[in-house]
Amino acid sequence: MTLHCSAITAALVLTAFIVSNPICPVQATVFSQSQEDSSLYFMNPLKILSKLFSQPPANTSPTMDDSPEVSCPVGPPLNTQKRTEFGKTGGTAFGYPSSGGVLIKDLDVVDALYLRIDRFAASKRSSNVLEEDEFCERMRRIGATWWGGEQEYIDVLLGVRERTEVEARVLVFGWPSDGSGVWVLRYASDRDVPRDLGRVNLAVNMDERCRVMKEFRATFYPDPASVEELR
After folding, report:
1. Whether the Cβ atoms of residue 115 and residue 153 lie closer than 8 Å to each other
2. Residue 143's pLDDT is what?
């Protein structure tokens, strides 16, 4: 008798929980019956326990017929023809080397001038392979990061994965207008960047950039070919 009462009490508590939680998987199973059949479970709570414990284990693999058709949303394909795109706080340049992958660089005024791209209107990549490779070389000379594909870049921004050591590094290049060489600033990651390095981004030409970079103890290379990142 005591066992029977305990079972009834447990069933009543379970019923109250199911009713108050519409997303409960038990409710989806138990009350998927007709309206008439569902009322029987309210009238006889023991049937709920019987129904519950008659279900297969949660990790039981469903058969082909029992498997619900689930479709995951798929975004539009990434645009591999864009040269630039603009957001709320600036723009980003993209280069597609013939060797594969994509070079990506957040732009400031000096970068855009050096790359010879429109600062105010989005543009498309060159359809000429040689021209595109030349553009990619210029991107490398201002510190663009190479990615296996734009999706890898997006995954990092979304936190799907961490940056690799190469992806995390921050490089700043300054090319004097007299062609005397190149100035380079290197940081292992954003965490190592000085708090006021943003002053570099306020330069309006390369000579100004080089002058500010010197204040951060940039390294000067008379021969750009000796710069490891540019080889």
Report:
1. no
2. 97
- How far is residue 228's CA from residue 231's CA, in Å, rounded to a whole number? 6
Pull the structure tokens for residue 151. Answer: 């999706």
Contact 190, 170 (CB under 8 A): yes
Greatest C-alpha distance within the chain? 99
Write the burial class of residue 2 (CB in 10 Å: 0-12 exposed, 13-18 middle, 19+ buried): exposed
CA distance 9 to 37: 21
Token readout for 172 is 């700043």
The pTM assigned to this predicted structure is: 0.68
Q: Which of 171, 142, 61, 147 is nearest to 97 (CA)?
A: 147
Under-50 pLDDT residues of the chain: 1-5, 7-8, 10-14, 17-19, 22-43, 45-46, 48-49, 52-53
Which residues does 47 contact at the CB level (< 8 Å), separation at least 6?
A: 40, 41
Q: For residue 86, count other CB atoms closer than 10 A to its CB.
A: 13
Task: Answer yes or no: are the C-beta atoms of 110 and 138 closer than 8 Å.
Answer: no
Helix (H/G/I), strand (E/B), else coil: 91: strand
Task: Give the whole-angstrom CA distance, residue 166 versus residue 61.
Answer: 42
Instruction: Say if CB 100 and CB 91 are below 8 A apart.
Output: no
Q: List the end-to-end C-alpha distance of the chain, in Å, as a whole number.
A: 86
Cα dihedral sign for 132, 135, 137, 142?
negative
